[in-house]
Each structure stands twice: as C-alpha cells, then as structure tokens.
Specification:
By secondary structure, this protein is mainly α. It has six helices and no strands. It has a single domain (2-99), classed as Cytochrome c-like domain (Cytochrome Bc1 Complex, Chain D, domain 2, Orthogonal Bundle). α2 packs across α6 and α4 packs antiparallel against α6 (87-99). The longest helix is centred in the first third of the chain and has 15 residues, at 2-16. The chain is globular. 23% of the residues are buried.
Length: 101
C-alpha cells in the first residue's frame, strides 16, 4: 500500500510540474487580447460559432490549444492564431481562461 501511495504521489508531483498545470494568470490576460476578438474579452463568446473559454479546465484548454498549434486539430481560423505560441504562452492562456467564471 505504501509503494502505491509513493508512486501516486510521484506521478502527481510530475504532472503538477508540467506546463499543463503551470501558467501565470496575469500574463495570460495580457496575451488574451487577440483571443478576445472571437472568444470575448471575458472568455464568453458573443457568437455560437466560437466556444466560451471562461471556466474551462486548465489542462483541457492547454491540450486543445497545443493540438491546434501542432496541427493535431485543424481550423483555418485558429491555425494562424496559435502557430507561434510557446508552451509558456499556452500555459498562461489556459491559466487565465480557467480562472474566469
């Protein structure tokens, strides 16, 4: 039982140190200006064609943005918006949008 607990704790620590769990909310807010054109200034889209980002889980947002950036997900509107984002940029954006309610 103790070994399983130690392994679980180690995996959690490893996951918590990954870019999916990192991110600076204020930096993300500053970087979100471009995103707000479609997703709204507070992460709530005015058009049904674009999803709301406010309140989404940080790991989900980071995964989806990375998928667009890396070409795993494709969308002609998103591709140029995320093409030059670093992992840090993505973590910051995910932290910001996940902090919104």
């Amino acid at each position: 039982m103790k070994i399983a607990s130690l392994i679980g704790a180690g995996l959690f620590a490893l996951a918590a140190s990954s870019p999916l769990f990192a991110g600076d909310i204020e930096a993300g807010k500053a970087k979100s200006v471009v995103c707000s054109a479609c997703h709204g200034p507070a992460g709530i889209s005015a058009a049904e064609i674009w999803p709301n980002l406010a309140g989404q889980k940080k790991a989900y947002l980071a995964k989806q943005i990375k998928a667009f950036r890396d070409g795993v997900r494709t969308d002609p509107t998103m591709a140029p918006m995320v093409a030059n984002l670093s992992d840090e940029d993505i973590a910051d954006l995910a932290a910001y949008y996940s902090s919104l309610k």
